[in-house]
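Re: that chain you flagged

S.,

Sorry for the slow reply, it's been a week of failed gels. I finally had a moment to sit down with the sequence you sent. For the record, here it is as I used it:
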Amino acid sequence: MMRSALFAAFAVASLSPAAAQMLKSPSQTEICAALPPVGAEDMAMLNKLMVEPHKISSLADMMKDLPPDAMAKVGAMQKSSAERQVKDWPNLCRYSAENAAVLASGTRPDVVFLGDSITDNWRYGDPSLFSAKVMDRGIGGQTTPQMLLRFYSDVVALRPKVVHIMAGTNDVSGNTGAETDESVVSNIRAMIDLAKANRIGVVLSAITPSRQFVARPGVDPSGRIAAVNKQLVKLAAEMHVTYVDYTPVLADSAGGLADALGNDGLHPNRDGYAKMRPLTDAAIKRTMKK
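Prediction finished late last night. Pasting the structure tokens below so you have them in one place:
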């Protein structure tokens, strides 16, 4: 034991001033500044493409709708995104600056929407829903473990009255590796625990309907989505939180996303978000009264 302690002390004492500097905790601003650029305008272009009603049957269809130089931009975005994920897996940097501004202003939002691309696109599909008091914290492609890791910085730290949680689609797709349904539900349970411990009301959303993933041709996720949603209904009842199911207003007769309400069979378009809005407003209002 003494020998190990002496070796450790010698190793630390031998560090150069530059290496010793690495032992200091960096600020979040420094961490985010060191990451590859995010290409916010290009991301917004893709998000807006998803909410303007039109048909997308494949990734090739999506590319046809983009400007001539878009392919190069998409390639650069994919490379940048992969590099950023290695260094910032939960993507804490995505909203870091916005969160800092909210905290500095002293504003307490009424609602924070936490989710994946369906939440990320929501600000473009229904911009009137969002304001200084209703904030969007969706990140495209994210799974429940990633959302759980950023739940404190993107939700709890902002002290909202209510959080709207929509998660699970990308877990079903396997975006960050294979997961059991139980793991997905456990991650969402942990988010609810964090919210309740900080006196934040919860609106828990069902996974929205889909029978296809454009990026994974031939895969029908509808059965698994239904299975996870059954567990989420039980979870909401057990945890005494508001449950909102958008399936009745979005689904077609086969249980997928209706063609008129989504461009790619997965993401709601502007008309889909319009169908969702009354259910959203009612769920938030009900939660505010609790």
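What I noticed first: The beta strands are 111-115, 134-138, 162-166, 201-205, 242-244.

Talk soon,
D.
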